[in-house]
Write a structure and sequence with these properties.
It is a single chain. The chain is an alpha+beta fold. The protein is built from 15 helices and 8 strands. The chain has helices at about 45-55, 80-85, 90-100, 105-115, 120-130, 135-150, 170-180, 185, 200-205, 210-215, 230-245, 260-265, 270-280, 290-300, 310-315; strands at about 15-20, 60-65, 70-80, 165-170, 215, 220, 230, 285. Strands 6-2-3-1-4-8 form a 6-stranded mixed sheet, with helices on both faces. It has a two-stranded antiparallel ribbon with strand order 5-7. A hairpin with a 3-residue loop joins strand 2 and strand 3 (about 70-80). Helix 1 runs antiparallel to helix 6 (about 135-150), helix 3 packs across helix 4 (about 105-115) and helix 7 (about 170-180) packs across helix 13. It starts with 14 loop residues before the first strand and ends with a helix. Residues about 250-255 have low confidence and may be disordered.
Amino acid sequence: MTQARSQLVSTDAPGTYHCVQRCVRRAFLCGVDGYSGQNFEHRKPWIEQRLSLVAECFAAAIHAYAVMSNHLHVVVHMDPGVALLWTDVEVAERWVRLFPPREPTDAAHTLKVERLLADPDRLAVLRQRLGNLSWLMKCLVEPIARRANAEDGCKGRFWEGRFKAQRLCDERAVLAAMVYVDLNPVRAGMASRLEACHHTSVAIRLRSSPDAFAAPLAPVAGALAMCLPIRTGDYLELVAWTGRQVHRGKRGRLRQDAPKILKHWEASPARWHTRVLAIGSGYWRVVGEVQDLKAWAERIGQRWLKGMRLAAALAQPS
């Protein structure tokens, strides 16, 4: 049964989420449609450009993303408290960047900002929205739908009504979700190596300077400057190694040349492989340790959450 998003997503506290937004009927509206032969690959850069803009305007940090042919993955950290620290001018400017005036002139932009500044009640509402996950996803996907429908000369839905959201309770869950997202083209059989994983966050990191490889893993986009406790180079090595385990034709075959950094995050290579794949099917609403899932189940008034048994198994000694 569908439950309110507010039960899972905090509107007044920081949180990290893995979000999935699918096209209607899972149609290939962003890729090559095998039925009609139409090619919609040119829409993938639209989504990447819009994601970058939305991340800059919201109190958000994009840790990972993957634009696929019929769906979109995003691992995003939201911190509503940051939006409370912005000045009224910052809030107004960010909102006008998201919803610019019809006339693309500096005068029209300035006028719209001034009108927002003259309405404190409206600014308070916008400040709250700029720290809200649902509004981030709305501002991300709706303009793409309008642009695609205009291109196709049609009306109606482009995306499914609701996006799936998983709450990631700790850094290991965040890292596993990032690897899962970055390897989406590999699991789909669209790529056999990281360099071919186009329209993903790992493609951006591979294009970074050598100096960035030695730096802590930073978001690929967003207004929040927050890093994970792993170097970018180590993360890329971990993604590449994990990809060799999940590539089609190699499922279930775990190589022993696991990167050294893996020992910091997981007791065994096989367990890490299970943890990453579980992001897609082993868990549902919450990803974390057993105590995390129990706490969230109690918080939302449930006795059980999908993934509890898996989390218990992953917590067992090797």
